[in-house]
Amino acid sequence: MSTEFTYAASGVDIDAGERAVTLMRAAVERTNRPEVVGGLGGFAGLFALDTAKYRRPLLASSTDGVGTKIALARQLDRHDTVGIDLVAMVVDDLVACGAEPLFLQDYVACGRVVPERIAAIVTGIAAGCTRAGAALVGGETAEHGDLMDADEYDLAATAVGVVEADAVLGPERVHEGDAVIAMASSGFHSNGYSLVRRVVGAAGLDLHATPAGLDRALGEELLEPTRIYALDCLALVEVLGVEGVHAYAHITGGGLAGNTARVVPDGLQAVLDRSTWALPVAVRLMEEHGVPRAESERAFNCGVGMIAAVAPDRADAAVALLTARGVPAWIAGTVRERSDGDAPAAELVGSYR
C-alpha cells in the first residue's frame, strides 16, 4: 500500500495560515489610506498615487528586517512589538531623504504557523504603519517547517514613499554652521542585539529582573520598540521647509558617528558633544559587563535615534517643534570645516553627562 502524503504532514498548515489572516485582518484594514485600492487577500497591493498632488514626484523605497532582536521576543514569548520595530527600520530610512511613507508590505517566514502568534506580529506591524501614516497593503507568511524550528520566525519588509524632486534631503544641502539636532531613541531600537544577547548570556543577566537605574525588567527594556520618527520629521520639514531642514540621518547599524557621517559632504565635519545628553542606563549596563566604550558607540545608538542637520537660525524652532510633538530633542553639535583631511566626517567629543 502506498504512503499518502499531505502538505500539513510536510510542515505546511494551510488552514492555520488562513486563520492567521482572519485574526490580523481588522488590524491591517485600520492602516488603510484613501489611496489604497482593493483590500487584503489580492495577489498584489494596489495604491493610487495622486500625480496631480505633486510637481515632480520621486518614489523612494527601503527594505530591512528586525534582526536578532527577534530571538529575545521568542525567549520572552512576546511578539506584539517586533512588528513596530520592522516598520520603524524601513520608514525612518525613507524619511531620511524627506520621503513620506505611503505603503508597506511585510514578509514573515516561520517554522510553524501559530495563528495567534502571527496575528500578534502583524498587529504590531499594523500599529507601526499607523504611527508612520503608511498603509499595510499586503504581505506574505511562509511556513518553512523543514528549514526552521517550530517557534522560529524572521521578518522583513519593504516600504515605498514619495518626495518632490526639489525637496530631497541629503548631504548636498548641508552647510558649514548647520546645527546638529539629536532626537532621543526609545532604547536600543533594532541594532546591536547580537552583542546585547552575548553580554546577557555571558554575564548571566536575568531578563525578568530590574537592574539598578531601570524602572522595569531588563527584558521589557530590551524589547521596547523602535521609535518611529517619520511623521515628526515630515512635520519639521513642513514647518521649516528645505531651507531650514537640510538632512536627516537614521541612527542604525554603525552607530551615531557612522550614520551621521553619511549626510556630511566632503570638506565638512559634524561634531557632536556627548555632554549634551546622558548615556542610557541600559548601554552603561552593557559596558559594565565588558563592552568597551568605542564598541558600544559603534554597535548601539547610545540614546540618539535620528539626527537632523538644520540651518543655525532654525535650530531652536526645530527643538521646540519636536519637543511639542513628544520627541525629546536637543542641539547636540554643529557642522564645521574639516581642516584635517584625515579627520572623520562625524566625530563625538566630550564626556556623557
Automatic annotation (TrEMBL):
Pfam families: AIRS (PF00586), AIRS_C (PF02769)
EC number from the UniProt entry: 6.3.3.1
Catalytic activity: 2-formamido-N(1)-(5-O-phospho-beta-D-ribosyl)acetamidine + ATP = 5-amino-1-(5-phospho-beta-D-ribosyl)imidazole + ADP + phosphate + H(+)
Metabolic or biological pathway: Purine metabolism; IMP biosynthesis via de novo pathway; 5-amino-1-(5-phospho-D-ribosyl)imidazole from N(2)-formyl-N(1)-(5-phospho-D-ribosyl)glycinamide: step 2/2
PurM-like N-terminal domain mapped to chain residues: 59-163
Top-level taxon of origin: Bacteria
GO cellular-component term (any): cytosol
BP-aspect Gene Ontology terms: 'de novo' IMP biosynthetic process; adenine biosynthetic process
Major enzyme class: ligase
Record keywords, A-Z: ATP-binding, Cytoplasm, Ligase, Nucleotide-binding, Purine biosynthesis
Gene3D superfamilies: PurM-like C-terminal domain, PurM-like, N-terminal domain
GO molecular function annotations of the record: ATP binding; phosphoribosylamine-glycine ligase activity; phosphoribosylformylglycinamidine cyclo-ligase activity
Main location (coarse class): cytoplasm
InterPro entries xref list: PurM-like_C_dom, PurM-like_C_sf, PurM-like_N, PurM-like_N_sf, PurM_cligase
Residue ranges annotated for the PurM-like C-terminal domain, each copy included: 176-340
Subcellular location(s) per record: Cytoplasm
Similarity comment text for this entry: Belongs to the AIR synthase family.
Protein name as it appears in the record: Phosphoribosylformylglycinamidine cyclo-ligase
Lineage of the species this protein comes from: Bacteria, Bacillati, Actinomycetota, Actinomycetes, Geodermatophilales
Gene that this sequence comes from: purM
